[in-house]
Amino acid sequence: IFYFEVKTMRKTLSGKNTLNNFLKEHAYSLSQISSRESNLTIHPLRNIMDMSILGGWCSIEPPGEFQVVFDTGSSDLWVPPVFCQSLACATKSMFIHLRSSTFWHTQKFFNIKYNTGRMKGLLVYDTIGDLVSTDQPFCISLAEVGFDGIPFDGDLGLNYPNMSFSGAIPIFDNLKNEGAISEPVFAFYLSKDKQEGSVVMFGGVDHRYYKGELNWVPLIQAGGWSVHMDRISMKRKIIACSGGCEALVDTGTALIKGPRRLVNNIQKLMGATPRGSKHYVSCSAVNTLPSIIFTINGISYPVPARAYILKDSRSHCYTTFKENTVRTSREIWILGDVFLRLYFSVFDRRNDRIGLARAV
């Protein structure tokens, strides 16, 4: 299994000794999905501001460090090149292609649009550090809009190949095709106490990161990490998703997002007041507001107030429900880090399903 440790911005471990100690202290025993012959590789990652997953290090030949988001909502890997002139690139680590003897570029240009911004890119090929030994297609950003001041360099997409804007083979598929992982699965554990850091693992599952059994949920269709959700309720009353809806399990989204009308209704039920881009509540509401329950495939997944209410830099409390700005004809919810910190998640490409269990 390839393990990636996620380190927070506030409690950052450093140096090889820390990683070696981590390996010694965690003699991983693998679940039924895993192979005993799996190799273990660990790389440091960082959580961004304790909210937005997952700042990580992705080595590209020549050796370089890039802080990327490990993102199940997209499929492309991209980093900024040294000649990127967008303001968003000014503070980022940039890929210096002239130092690589294995780099080559195509003539394929494309655009990617995210909830938070967009980028224009060029499809290129190079060797990706310790992960994929052969040519890996990825993208270099020629222009970025909406990513100013965001503390990551690029994005590493973990969605299905058909979701790729560039048409490139995603890095996970290359790992799978080259036999670098024993099973076509990956899993996320997002630490709540931030002491030990979070982990993303490729090729298997470590059962010590969750309690009880994994509840498997079939995808709505192969080709995207979306599942059917039965309802969303509070105090035994349905407050959204009343006739069933779609839920995207997205590690690249920090919050819980849904349609404007339904999100506004939930904010009113919480007594939240809009101010700027957030909805605020009294911090004492953490002790009085009930859990919001997401029912998926007949299983209830409660999210308590202490999870869906966070403090900003001024110690004011705000809710983590937000409007999804992407308009669709269907009711779609995005379950981001707020949900995933409570529930260990497994993404199974072989069987086109997602496994959920209460995180330790």
From TrEMBL:
Domain Peptidase A1: 54-357
Keyword Secreted: yes
Catalytic residues identified in the record: 71, 250
Gene Ontology cellular-component terms listed: extracellular region
Gene Ontology MF terms in the entry: aspartic-type endopeptidase activity
Subcellular location as annotated: Secreted, Extracellular space
Protein name, entry field: Peptidase A1 domain-containing protein
Native source organism of the sequence: Bos indicus x Bos taurus (Hybrid cattle)
